[in-house]
Amino acid sequence: MVLLLGLALVSLVIGVVAVVLLAGRRGVEVVSLERPPPGVPPVPGQQLGPEATPEQLVRAGRKIEAIKRYRELTGVGLRDAKEAIEAFEREGTLRLPAKTALLRQVNDSEIEAQIRTGHLIDAIKLYREKNGVGLKEAKDAVEAWRDRMRAS
Question: Which is nearest to 80 in space by CA: 67, 63, 94?
Answer without folding.
Answer: 67
